[in-house]
Amino acid sequence: MNISHNPAIELDEEDAYDKFEPTDRSKVEEYKKQEQKSHPHRLEEFIITEPKTLQDEETKIRINRPIGVYTPPENFAMVCGSIYRSSFPRVENFEFLQTLNLKSVLCLIPEEYPPENLEFNKVNGIRFFQVGLSGNKEPFVKIKPELVTEALKIITNPANQPILIHCNRGKHRTGCIVGCVRKLQKWSLSMIFDEYRKFAYPKERPLDQQFIEMYDDTEIELYASERHWLPLHW
């Protein structure tokens, strides 16, 4: 039984925290109206000088960066290479996501994906994956390791990159997946847990950290190595 769809059952604090709440439809409609008036993002040449005290041509790096103001999803960050993480993308984040040239989105929550997100993916040629995970909570709810392995097969496949990984808040389920990515990168547990706590604050879950530590990455490491997907490059 899915308690998220049964109004007779009251969610506890942790379940309520993890539960996805759809964007207000009026906000979605307003976004659609604005989208019809807007133009695709433009790029400008930007010069990075390193070190900053030098101005000769050899120290200048020229990049193209988007012009305008963009709103990334909460807890957005680059994990490594073309792998990104965030909270659930909302309509106000779509313009920012376009600048990433995503090939794939991996959703880690089991709820039905919103139609506006599906439409955004379709219009932008973004492949959608969903591996619904239950958050780690006492006493009996735990993430299934086999689902994490399936998620890692999607993430480490270069054909799916650039890829965005997200759950609801980008803290716990996403934190567990990223922690297991770090294990594939041979990070120490102390470094993995430091990163997990940074994004999970102020609701760090000891069970998440225990899961990361106990997760057996033998299968995914062999699977990805045989396909020459490892190591994951920065």
From TrEMBL:
GO terms for molecular function: inositol diphosphate tetrakisphosphate diphosphatase activity; phosphatase activity. Residues 75-224 form the Tyrosine-protein phosphatase domain. It is an enzyme of class 3 (hydrolase). It catalyses: 5-diphospho-1D-myo-inositol 1,2,3,4,6-pentakisphosphate + H2O = 1D-myo-inositol hexakisphosphate + phosphate + H(+); 6-diphospho-1D-myo-inositol pentakisphosphate + H2O = 1D-myo-inositol hexakisphosphate + phosphate + H(+); 3,5-bis(diphospho)-1D-myo-inositol 1,2,4,6-tetrakisphosphate + H2O = 3-diphospho-1D-myo-inositol 1,2,4,5,6-pentakisphosphate + phosphate + 2 H(+); 1,5-bis(diphospho)-1D-myo-inositol 2,3,4,6-tetrakisphosphate + H2O = 1-diphospho-1D-myo-inositol 2,3,4,5,6-pentakisphosphate + phosphate + 2 H(+). GO terms for cellular component: cytoplasm. Residues 17-40 have a biased composition (Basic and acidic residues). Residues 1-40 are annotated as: Disordered. The keyword Flavoprotein does not apply. SUPFAM superfamilies: (Phosphotyrosine protein) phosphatases II. Keywords: Hydrolase. Pfam families: Y_phosphatase2. It comes from the Eukaryota. Its EC number is 3.6.1.52. Belongs to the protein-tyrosine phosphatase family. Atypical dual-specificity phosphatase Siw14-like subfamily. This is diphosphoinositol-polyphosphate diphosphatase. It comes from Eeniella nana (Yeast).
